[in-house]
Amino acid sequence: MSVRGFLRSRVGFCATHFLFPEPARRSRLRRVRQALLLRRSWCMLTVVLALASSAFAQSTVQHRNPYLGWSTFSQQTIDSSFLTQSNVSAESDALAASGLEAHGFQYINIDSGWMGSFDGYGRPIPDTTTFPDIQALIAHIHANGQKVGIYWIPGVEYPAVAANSPILGTQYHIQDILTVPYTAGNAFGGSGTSPYHYKIDFSKPGAQEYMNSVVALFASWGVDLIKLDGVTPGSDSYGLSIDNRDDVAAWSKAIAASGRPIWLTISWALDEDYLSVWQEYANARRIDQDVECEGDCSKLTNWPRIYERFRDLPGWESAAGFEVGWNDLDSLELLNGSADGLTREEKRSALNLWVLANAPITLGGDLRSIDTFGKELLSNDEVLAVDQSGSPAKQVLDGDLEVWVSDLGHGDYNVGIFNMNATVVRAQIPWSLLGFGQATDVRDVWLHRELGSVPGGFSTVLAGHGSRLLRVHGIGKPASAPSTNYEAENATLSGSASVAECNACSGGEKVGNLGLGAANTVTFENVTVPRSGEYLMEVDSMTIGLRSFLYNVNGGSFQTLNCSGGSFEIPASTTVPVYLKKGVNTISFGNPPSYPPDLDRIVIRGNGDFPAPSTTSYEAEVATLNGSASAVFSNYSSGLAKAGNLGGGAGNTVTFEQVTVPSDGTYQLEIDYQTSGLRSFFMSVNGAAATELDLNGDTFSDPTPTVVPVTLHAGTNTIEFGNASGYAPDLDRIVVAPRLGHP
Predict the structure, then answer these.
(1) C-alpha span between 506 and 513 (Å, rounded)
(2) Which of 211, 397, 414, 663 could form a disulfide with 254 if both were Cys (CB 3.0 to 4.6 A apart)?
(3) Is the separation of the CB atoms in 535 and 399 below 8 Å?
(4) pTM of the predicted model as reported, rounded to 2 decimal places
(5) CA 587, CA 553: separation in Å to the nearest integer?
(6) Which class for 316: exposed (0-12), middle (13-18), buried (19 or more C-beta within 10 A)?
(7) Going edge to edge, which strands form the sheet with 559-563?
(8) pLDDT of 3 above 60
């Protein structure tokens, strides 16, 4: 295992509270940003927005559909000098000229870095070298028919504390409202009693008045949205050692007191255990890490960062709506062609997820260089209407194919079908999965095309990382299917696996301390079905941040369930197809080289007739590793690990020994690799002469796929990767799929 993965504390629990390792990655830019925050005011991230309210609870604001706009932050990650008044003004002009305002894109959000110092009342004011006249800038944005967002953070920074500025309209000063002894006021605050970011004690007189004065200043400039960043519990600081719940309430009350309709978004990766607070006081909450690479790759983002949103969202999918606010998935990088780091199919799939989730759409990149395809994506009003529907989708199928469904009522549904692999696949989705028997009307939302009546289910060919977005009218109830629950705490626990209390779990308990060793597993030994076939397996699990189960059925090859979430106490459900034999089966969950979630239960549903997946994935870290090859932690890799230290000698290889296909033929082979610069694999199939695969990449952090043809024979095959004379890339996994024509 890598030093990076295994110098972290092991998952475990004390009494009834599960502990978890420090998040696997804190981006380079965020670390730099924290250092800047210790020297002067700095801030981060995306967005701000406005809508109307007379009550302080932001989620009760009327006309509060998810907003559409643009933020400076993504461009800031690749151009450190970007954040200036002239550039923001030019982006506003570019938005006005693009025609996107007519499709609902209104917001121009000024992110971290605009602030320079504090006024005489301890309130943040702009850096006049970069923002010489912020009120003139905001007036210009408003004149373009747009709204303005601005970024700030909870607590009080050191310069205002040291100045002990008076609080406007009161007899109090800044030091009168601070928590004593001094402690960190947000996730960027340091340890000890000199944290640079100081916590406010809102039980003290003058505290709410200070917050009111800050928001009143923003309102006087004409701000329409506030992005409050570094909010805890969340922002890589979980538990209550730093607690911003009172801050969020105070900002919401201050917005109400300002008399100006201002949207409040809180960030980042919020702790779901305190969802009721986030729902009461904020219009939206960021549920995940930054989507930008921030130096870990050469582009704005990449597909693994988009895939993280697919993993994060199931745990939050029931938490959003008009009355409780929206799940913010961070920026969408759709504007600037290849500079965004996504293929066209990946961009469309990302937008499909955002609109199905009813997430705010905050564009990243440079509006001055928007390409034709970006405009095409963002001007499809029928697609954007899905985002504004007020019916966030829920995931009904996970795995290599994902299906997300919004129930609009009266038999109408928005349906997204996603190919999570880089291979071309045929997706077959029975309508019973969506909860109805027949579809009388199916419409392709992107193409505005009626597909007519589609009985039984929907079949489509999807390109790599491609998707379809449908509007479906369903009728009738599907035939009932049996289901059986299996509680993890009643299964067979091995190694370090152990039971802990979990009030929100089925049965009131869960199993943790899984993984980080082949013996640390939970095994369901009596999974019984009446006939052999493909069933649906619901897995109810809990995690904060990215984790992965590696599970096997009846001792077979490992299968992967990549998860994420915002709580170790609230189960999230995800469902995958699983082949079971007639009679008694065993299903074992763990992750020999890395971290799995905690496990509540599994539920087996169906009659054994669900369409079998056409693709099979094999994780490199649990293949046969020879020589120096080793399993290493990798946060964005499938299975949360990869095989590294390959090549540089004939014996340093990874071999997949159980690659099984139904018939002789040529298949698609997806190879998910990691490298920075040129490296080569030599690949040997069934002991034949090796084929050289020359690969390029820009990061060892995130996997990049390539797809090549491979000839396999019916039954079991072996595929070996290495490089006797040079260094090979790291290897995440391979995927085998039948050959199909492109859609």
Answers:
(1) 18
(2) 211
(3) no
(4) 0.92
(5) 5
(6) buried
(7) 492-493, 522-529, 583-590, 547-553, 559-563
(8) no
